[in-house]
Write a structure and sequence with these properties.
Blueprint lengths: L6 E5 L4 H12 L3 E6 L15 E4 L5 H14 L5 E4 L14 H30 L5 E6 L12 H21 L4 E8 L5 H8 L10 H11 L8 H12 L10 E4 L13
Parallel strand pairs: 1-2, 1-4, 2-3, 4-5, 5-6, 6-7
Helix pairs in contact: 1-7, 2-3, 3-4
């Protein structure tokens, strides 16, 4: 088990991708704190999976410091931090309110900042044992290129990419590695919400037709699963990735590698 003896904290740990990461870490032998707004997160039900639930709003600094104090008390260190909490607003800037814009940055960017900031003392304690600690942020392929109708989301993910590189430079000398995962289309509740929203450009098509259209635009003719993301996160969290830092790891089935073809 690659993560035996390690302590991990996953924000958004009750969501689609977050839950898959938590499950993978548990299988690899880690002690896992699943941080989210509620025990159910974005899913309707929750079974006891062996993780430790931490109630936490990543945009609320007292909530973050309280969660880290609990980890300090119970574990004394934090080897792995995954900043997977995020929200998506499907609007152009013209249609986005200032409140929506600020909320997007509060969760996607400020949340990453606050959780990482207050995790650093615990991660230094982990690195002092002679192995590297690992922070894994969540960017997006939308931080490189843009989907229509996702202006605020794209902006926040570009910011996370830049923050990841800065953190890697600042904290690498302390034995703390920092990387970002940049998913494409992943089968999560957020994606299914996108299919029903204005941002999909559905034009009256059925959900099944939209889903197939998204699959067809990928070179691999499918979109990903939360487990696909968890596999890469697990490697970045492990000591096998001891020399990997400051990178933006795109996992999108080849979508961003191609020029979009003309619709004939």
């Amino acid at each position: 088990m690659k993560l035996e003896g390690k302590t991990a904290l996953v924000t958004g740990g009750r969501g689609g991708i977050g839950r898959a990461i938590v499950a993978r870490f548990l299988r690899e032998g880690a002690t896992v704190y699943a941080a989210d707004l509620t025990p159910q997160g974005s899913l309707a039900e929750h079974d006891d999976d062996g993780s430790i639930f931490l109630p936490m709003n990543v945009a609320d600094e007292p909530a973050v410091t309280s969660a880290m104090a609990r980890v300090q008390q119970e574990s004394g260190k934090l080897d792995i931090l995954v900043n997977a909490a995020g929200i998506e607003i499907e609007k152009t800037i013209e249609d986005t309110t200032l409140e929506e814009w600020n909320r997007s940055f509060a969760v996607n960017c400020t949340g990453t900042f606050l959780t990482s900031k207050h995790a650093l003392p615990l991660m230094r304690a982990a690195a002092a044992t002679g192995q590297t600690a690992s922070i894994i942020n969540f960017g997006s392929y939308d931080g490189f290129i843009a989907d229509p109708g996702l202006a605020a989301y794209c902006a926040t993910k570009g910011a996370v990419h830049a923050l990841t590189r800065a953190m890697a430079c600042d904290h690498g000398p302390e034995g703390i590695r920092v990387n970002a995962i940049c998913p494409g289309y992943i089968d999560t509740p957020m994606l299914q919400s996108f299919f029903t929203g204005d941002g999909s450009g559905g034009g009256g098509k059925s959900i099944d037709q939209l889903q197939q259209a998204v699959r067809d635009v990928h070179p691999m003719r499918t979109y990903g699963t939360p487990d696909d993301i968890a596999n890469l996160v697990n490697w970045l969290a492990s000591d096998e990735a001891r020399y990997a830092s400051g990178q933006l790891w795109v996992l999108d089935g080849g979508l961003s590698a191609q020029v979009q073809q003309m619709k004939l």
